[in-house]
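thought: user wants a sequence for this fold. calling inverse folding tool.
action: design(structure=
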């Protein structure tokens, strides 16, 4: 199927699509959604009082759908950029598999459904936070920051950091310091994670006119920023253990993971030429995903299955 031109994306020439279900699934950005589910689950499970399993599952599903709605709205608005960039040109809207109007309607319906469901089944504080998260990502980041400032991913990263706060609010009806610490970990993690990839894809962003840090302020400045954010991230990642709401196992993983993040960030900073530089950036990008996944999986495990098993064993004694 031939690509739809950027000019046709918002004109009457774009016809209704004959999309497959997998195309609508792609609009939800399932890989991003899986990380949202994990971080939101951690927020739910650190609640001081156990949440009812049905409420917890429904809340997690609503948060996941809200994240997917944000992705659909992002793909609708960014279709003109996506059509230009090699990395994103095969997405459902720029490739013509899903019409722009359909992607917009899909995102709006899912947004409303997810917020309403979370409000009715959990509480309206959590629903309000989810609504703000969707608005922040779709409007503040996608429509404004992404196209106007090289700090776009720094400020816009708040949207991806909200799920544990939303999850905690769904379980308790409140926001705690612990949930804000989880927010801070994701918020500080986002720039080095994303800029490591942007250093490799900077020509794509420049061609699309997106002022990402590497093509707006240069690769050297970006590498320095990556290193500085990682230096801050390493100790912040240890805070759940130091504050007492994560175990020594988490503490060990966070210290080791932080040290490896620093190593990969340092390699990204000092290796600046040729294929070796690309590999250094992609190594940091790949490990950063593993780092965040392991930390939040450990928090979820020790506050979920591990805690359940401990209670069961105590009950038998």
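)
observation: tool returned 317 residues.
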């Amino acid at each position: 199927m031939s690509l739809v031109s950027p000019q046709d994306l918002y004109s009457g020439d774009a016809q209704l699509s004959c999309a497959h279900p997998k195309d609508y699934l792609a609009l939800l950005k399932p890989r991003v959604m899986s990380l949202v589910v994990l971080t939101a689950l951690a927020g739910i499970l650190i609640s001081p009082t156990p949440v009812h399993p049905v409420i917890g599952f429904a809340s997690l599903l609503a948060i996941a759908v809200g994240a997917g709605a944000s992705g659909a709205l992002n793909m609708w608005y960014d279709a003109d950029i996506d059509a230009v960039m090699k990395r994103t040109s095969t997405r459902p809207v720029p490739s013509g598999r899903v019409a722009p109007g359909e992607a917009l309607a899909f995102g709006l319906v899912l947004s409303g459904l997810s917020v309403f469901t979370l409000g009715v089944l959990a509480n309206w504080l959590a629903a309000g936070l989810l609504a703000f998260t969707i608005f922040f990502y779709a409007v503040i980041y996608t429509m404004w920051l992404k196209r106007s400032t090289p700090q776009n991913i720094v400020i816009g990263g708040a949207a991806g950091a909200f799920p544990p706060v939303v999850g905690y609010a769904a379980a308790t009806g409140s926001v705690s310091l612990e949930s804000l610490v989880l927010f801070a970990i994701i918020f500080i993690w986002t720039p080095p994670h994303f800029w490591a990839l942007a250093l490799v894809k900077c020509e794509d962003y420049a061609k699309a006119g997106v002022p990402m840090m590497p093509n707006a302020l240069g690769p050297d400045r970006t590498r320095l920023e990556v290193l500085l954010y990682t230096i801050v991230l390493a100790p912040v990642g240890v805070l759940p253990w130091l504050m007492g709401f994560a175990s020594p196992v988490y503490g060990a993983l966070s210290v080791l993971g932080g040290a490896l993040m620093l190593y990969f960030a340092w390699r990204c900073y000092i290796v600046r030429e040729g294929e070796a530089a690309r590999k250094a950036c992609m190594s940091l990008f790949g490990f950063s995903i593993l780092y965040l996944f392991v930390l939040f999986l450990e928090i979820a495990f020790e506050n979920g299955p591990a805690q359940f098993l401990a209670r069961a064993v105590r009950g038998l004694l």
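thought: summarizing for user.
answer: Here is the designed sequence. Residues 10-14 have pLDDT under 50 and may be disordered.
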